[in-house]
Amino acid sequence: MVVYVVSAMKKVLIVYAHQSAGSFNAAAKDAAVEVLRAQGCQVEVSDLYAMKFNPSATADDITGEVKDAEHFHYGEETMLAWKEGRLSADLTEEQRKLSAADVVIFQFPMYWFTVPAIMKGWIDRVLTMGFAYTSEQRYSQGIFKEKKVMLSFTTGSSESMFSSNGINGDINITLWPLQNGVLHYCGFQVLAPQIFWAPHHISSEARSTMLEAWRTRLQGLLGEMPLSFTPSDSFDCERGFQLKEVIEEKHKSEAFGLTVGTHLGKRIPPNSQIKAGV
């Protein structure tokens, strides 16, 4: 008897933020859809501008009465609404997509060193307390620890400007709040970002080469190893979630800190937010 083992079809969610269908970001998004579907993946796209996605986190995100209208607390109220099935229809739909996804790709142009406002609104509104994180389930113990995620974005500045001696500062520092403070916080396995350096300032041939490199990476994306972050159990909750003394002592003789954020007053580990395995 021959037994065939078929791996489950991977589901991919692309959260996309660009106003123009003729943009480089649109081309990068379309390439991801094409290549991943060719591999048998089921791909959904949340095109935030086309959806006219509302980025404002307000009481309108809750149907029915709120618990405390006078002292409204968005996190607590949306957590209760999520538990009771009273979140607005647009949030419920985005949470459905995210729950189903094995891999999430955020595709966007970098605005002011971070995501566009409409995408920040998606993060603020969709990643509600209870659904995406709790005080017990975060970082390496996070709710989405079985899911992979990555940032894929364009910059307006050249790579040299985001170097350790560049005018914009080290790109590893720029990415830390997003990759650690949002994605890793929710438990995601964070893949190395896909950075398209200043496509607006290069030739069409160079842009084509960028897209071809992206297509090549997408062929093996599902098997990539994630970036490294310090495990949650390395921190002592009795000491205000500071690094445990035994770990700090063990790392004392190392030339670099543990991570960009937990650097222990040392040099930050080079490229730790843009390359896996460092």
From TrEMBL:
Superkingdom of the organism of origin: Eukaryota
SUPFAM superfamilies, sorted: Flavoproteins (SSF52218)
Annotated protein name in UniProt: Ribosyldihydronicotinamide dehydrogenase [quinone]
Root EC class: oxidoreductase
Species assigned in the record: Esox lucius
EC number: 1.10.5.1
Subunit structure: Homodimer.
Residue ranges of every copy of the Flavodoxin-like fold domain listed in the record: 10-218
Cofactors (names): Zn(2+); FAD
Cellular compartments annotated: Cytoplasm
Function: The enzyme apparently serves as a quinone reductase in connection with conjugation reactions of hydroquinones involved in detoxification pathways as well as in biosynthetic processes such as the vitamin K-dependent gamma-carboxylation of glutamate residues in prothrombin synthesis.
A molecular function GO annotation: NAD(P)H dehydrogenase (quinone) activity
Reactions that this protein is recorded to catalyse: 1-(beta-D-ribofuranosyl)-1,4-dihydronicotinamide + a quinone + H(+) = beta-nicotinamide D-riboside + a quinol
Lineage: Eukaryota, Metazoa, Chordata, Craniata, Vertebrata
